[in-house]
Amino acid sequence: MYRARPADGCVWITGASSGIGRGVALELAKRGYTVIASARRADELNAVCEEAKGLSGRIFAEPCDITHRDEIQTLVERITQNHGPIALAFLNAGTFFKDRPGEFGGDGFRKTFVLNVDGSINCLGPVISAMAAQGRGQIAVNASLAGYGGMPRSIAYSASKAALIVMCEALKFDLDKRGLTLQIVNPGFVKTPLTDNNDFPMPFLIELDDAARRICDGFETAGFEICFPRPLVWPLKLINLLPYSLYFPLMRWITKGG
Ligand SMILES: NC(=O)c1ccc[n+]([C@@H]2O[C@H](COP(=O)([O-])OP(=O)(O)OC[C@H]3O[C@@H](n4cnc5c(N)ncnc54)[C@H](OP(=O)(O)O)[C@@H]3O)[C@@H](O)[C@H]2O)c1
């Protein structure tokens, strides 16, 4: 399957103003790629571009809100015109919106789906069309290990990430036929502004630079899934194979009562 190289075109990253997206943008610039960094905060994107000065690749800011579907088609066209074909798209923007304790299906729940699921779909459509026209391209969607199965305190977030995982599994059949590469990225806990808000223990928390390197190494491999860290990945994969009569007590025990 196709793997993007710096000479093939540019890399588009959503959610590049902070956290994982920012770390991956800088890591790819170190590896010689031209990176187009998108998010809503233009000042933070400009700071990432500044930080990349002196690296072998470059970063250019293209602010956007991925929940505004109509903007994305135009943005993808502008990136292609200004920077050449998008060889790799890392659709990473997403977050965890909280609801009031005990509330189900509130504003936070809906915002989680609008950003994590609809926002990723808004980007996937134009990117797939552009790459299909180019005849090649690589797409990686950032989900989470939280999408492997239902977890306490993570109803909307886990469900939104599970939706991305299953959507990409299904989409892969179609993109394989078109010669486009699709990968899913499932990180465990990574130290970012998102996890800085967490008020529960985060086992095997990984530093941002380490996570960015693992993700960029994963872009170069043949595998569909880029997932880490192993001590969290394998227990979670195994727990999700168990019958529910074992899954629920075990998950309750692991998460210290839910
Ligand atoms: N950190 C972890 O432990 C972890 C683990 C697994 C998966 N993930 C996933 O990794 C991704 C990045 O998370 P992070 O931890 O790096 O969090 P973060 O630092 O909060 O980054 C989130 C990024 O998304 C952008 N964003 C938010 N709303 C947007 C919108 N409407 N349009 C465009 N961009 C938007 C934010 O920029 P603006 O505010 O400037 O728009 C920011 O750049 C998320 O999908 C998250 O679910 C994180």
pLDDT < 50 runs, ≥5 residues: none
Rg over CA atoms, rounded to whole Å, is 18 Å
Count the DSSP helices. 9
The span between the termini is 41 Å
Q: Name the overall outline.
A: globular
What structural category characterises the helix and strand content? alpha/beta
Average pLDDT for all residues: 96
Could you say what the CATH architecture is? 3-Layer(aba) Sandwich
Q: In which range does the helix fraction lie? A: 40-55%
List the helices and strands and how they pair.
Blueprint: E1 10-14, H1 19-30, E2 34-38, H2 42-51, E3 58-61, H3 69-83, E4 86-91, H4 107-134, E5 138-142, H5 155-177, E6 181-187, H6 193-196, H7 208-219, E7 225-228, H8 230-239, H9 244-254
Parallel strand pairs: 1-2, 1-4, 2-3, 4-5, 5-6, 6-7
Q: Keywords for this structure?
A:
single chain, 258 residues, alpha/beta, Rossmann fold, 7-stranded parallel beta sheet, 48% helix, globular, binds NADP nicotinamide-adenine-dinucleotide phosphate
Summarize the structure.
The protein is an alpha/beta fold. The chain has 9 helices and 7 strands; from the N terminus they run E-H-E-H-E-H-E-H-E-H-E-H-H-E-H-H.
